Task: structure prediction
Amino acid sequence: MKNYIGKVNSIKKISADVYELKILSDLDYAKSGQFISIFVPNKTFHRPFSIADFDKERKLTTVLFKLKGEGTKYLSELKKEDNIEFLAPLGNSFELKNKNSLLVGAGIGIAPMLFLKKELNKKNIKNYLISGFKREEEIIFGSDENVVGGSVLDNLDKIIKEKNIEIIYSCGPKIVLKKICEIAKNNNIPCFVALEKVMACSIGVCRGCTIKLKRNNEIIRASVCKDGTIFKGEEVLWED
Ligand SMILES: Cc1cc2nc3c(=O)[nH]c(=O)nc-3n(C[C@H](O)[C@H](O)[C@H](O)COP(=O)(O)OP(=O)(O)OC[C@H]3O[C@@H](n4cnc5c(N)ncnc54)[C@H](O)[C@@H]3O)c2cc1C
Ligand code: FES
Result:
């Protein structure tokens, strides 16, 4: 992990309140599931964002960000060629298995799934991506199927059976991830989740982002930013 000062290569609005930001930098390594943490002037804490794409040849790192507060407003007003400072690559990554994979992205949770899909495709691993949005204007394209107005949970069980799914990867709100893991468990298939927690340092130092896991019958604490953000769904204690 290093601190990079890159340049905005492009920034564009891609749905109602989501922007796609491409950063040109010297970052030369990133895997799906990892994230970057962007410095925002006059703010104590960096803002973490999943890597939605990484193109080593063109030196481009892509993030998709949804407008939330001052940090994301600042990012949305950046212009081509502006400097952008960030820590990267952060966190662990998805472990790619040669299994029929179902990728589920709820809302902006689609971001890391797009990068994962690209990596699975490169390895010719069969995969299927579904994403869910509250309204049509919020759709971010790139999925095999978009669920609008409903929930990505609708029909999940049916899709697992129909597509012969052997593993699930997912990102989205905690409540949705918990349900996806329950459905995976009922179908006897593993489920990996990308978790989010408000972060201060983003690099495993402050211990401000810990969650509880149950591993080998023991309860342990893990930091989302360093030990994750990808965890085995069956180990996560969701009530934490
Ligand atoms: C590992 C990780 C990956 C993420 N990936 C994405 C992504 O790909 N796209 C995207 O749009 N958002 C993503 N988020 C959420 C994103 O970091 C927040 O929306 C963003 O930091 C909000 O900053 P703000 O200043 O605009 O909002 P404010 O609400 O003003 O932020 C205040 C503080 O709360 C933190 N914060 C606010 N919302 C969240 C949140 N949901 N999760 C974590 N911290 C939060 C901020 O970092 C900041 O420190 C991710 C969060 C984490 C932890
Ligand atoms: S944010 Fe500091 S340890 Fe994770």
Q: What stands out?
A: The pocket of FE2/S2 (inorganic) cluster (ligand 2) is lined by residues 199-202, 204-209, 223, 225 (CB under 6 Å). The chain has four helices and 15 strands. The chain has a mean pLDDT of 96.
